[in-house]
Amino acid sequence: LSTAQSAVETAETIGGEGLDDRMKDMLRRASRRLDQATRMVKDLADLTRGGELQEENLARVDMNDLVVRTVEGLEDLAARRGIKVETLLPDEPVIMTTSPGRVEGIAANVIGNAVRYCRDGKSVAVQLLDTGEVVHLIVEDEGIGIDPEDRERIFEEFYRTEAARKASDLGTGLGLAIVKKYVDELGGRIDLHSDPGSGSTFTIVLPRRSRAKLASAGGGRP
């Protein structure tokens, strides 16, 4: 897929302004579909990558820094559509002992969806709340919203609502399934509030320290 994507991009570069409009459109569509296929492969890898949390795989994660980096990665997309992304972070660093890959995947998918499905010119708010034993990641958007009958199914693999399909044809339907998987593995929960046509608020509640499987010579201990 990466080789094919590179070939298409090279063809666009070599052809330049000499390409007629039909060929430019074909190459653009091919590039978008290859990008979608690549994202789907990566998402499937995330979804099928498993195993119990191991103590040696846990690390200290600065959630303030993680949120800032995630939002920065979406700045171009937000700017192109006139979307304002506001971050509300505690003054002190929010440090968790958890799986870095899992919390990064959660933040990337939830915040990315909020920007992707927000209405042009509207806003997204990303907030961290530190309540001691648990940390809340709250992502609120002024987007397309989710109908009541879809609210359980959106966490199923490959499921996309009709509104999401109309808003974008590039989604894989795997992002929220990955979020659900990671949140469950970390011992957290997801709360969702949504008004169709007005927006959604996802609240991810995670323990400050994730529970890992502790191995020992005696076959493990609680």
Multimerization status: single chain
Structural class determined from secondary elements: alpha+beta
Helix run count: 7
Strand order of the largest sheet: 2-4-5-7-6
Cα(first) to Cα(last) distance is 44 Å
Total strands = 7
pLDDT < 50 stretches: 214-222
Helix content: 40-55%
Largest sheet entry: 5 strands, mixed
* CA-atom Rg in angstroms: 20 Å
Mean pLDDT score, rounded?
85
Shape: globular
Strand content: 15-25%
Secondary-structure element string: HHEHHEEHEEHHEE
Question: What would you note in describing this structure?
Answer:
- Helices cover 41% and strands 20% of the residues.
- It contains seven helices and seven strands.
- A five-stranded mixed sheet has the order 2-4-5-7-6. The chain has a two-stranded antiparallel ribbon with strand order 1-3.
- Helix 1 (2-15) runs antiparallel to helix 2.
- The longest helix is centred in the first third of the chain and has 28 residues, at 21-48.
- Residues 214-222 have low confidence and may be disordered.
Primary descriptors:
222 residues, alpha+beta, 5-stranded mixed beta sheet, 41% helix, disordered C terminus
Quick summary of this structure?
With 222 residues, the protein is α+β, with helices and mostly antiparallel strands.
Walk me through the topology:
Elements lengths: L1 H14 L5 H28 L10 E4 H10 L2 H6 L3 E5 L6 E4 L1 H17 L6 E8 L3 E8 L20 H6 L7 H11 L3 E7 L3 E9 L15
Parallel strand pairs: 2-4
Antiparallel strand pairs: 1-3, 4-5, 5-7, 6-7
